[in-house]
Amino acid sequence: MRTWFIRDIKAPKTSPKTNESFEEAIKRYGLSEQDLRARMRSYFRVAILCVALGVLAFLWMIYLFIKEMIFPGFVALALASLMFSYGFREHFQYFQIQQRRLGCTVREWFSSFISRKRLRK
């Protein structure tokens, strides 16, 4: 087991293809338009669920701080932060499929999220 661990650490990591277009990725994974719509729905639903759980954890944190339970309040804050970050990740994946391009930036996501405009380039 020890040699497996050392071999795994020393193994060269293959770098992902950085200049791959959205269409090339679709062909490489063999996805159809129906598959993309299903993934978009899935990403969006998980994003909504994570944000809802994040809001609940944040409200729970406020309750705990009001009751002067400091340490559990910080745990609830960590949980809320985690849920919001998962929600962002899932919605960002949804956004990239919606825009039909890979390598979108957080700034593009944020401006699209605020203005509700489609940014497709």
Describe the protein.
With 121 residues, the chain is mainly alpha-helical. It has one domain (33-121). 75% of the residues lie in helices and 0% in strands. The chain is built from five helices and no strands. The chain has helices spanning 2-10, 22-29, 33-66, 70-99, 106-115. The longest helix has 34 residues, at 33-66. It is elongated and about 55 Å long. The mean pLDDT is 83.
List keywords for this structure.
121 residues, mainly alpha, 5 helices, 0% strand, elongated
Give a quick rundown of the structure:
The protein is mostly helical and 121 residues long. The chain has helices spanning 2-10, 22-29, 33-66, 70-99, 106-115.
Secondary-structure element string: HHHHH
Alpha carbon gap, first and last residue: 49 Å
Strand residue percentage: under 5%
Query: What count of domains describes the coordinates?
Result: 1
Number of helices: 5
In round numbers, the mean pLDDT is 83
- Kindly state the percentage of residues in helix: over 70%
**Uncertain residue segments:** none
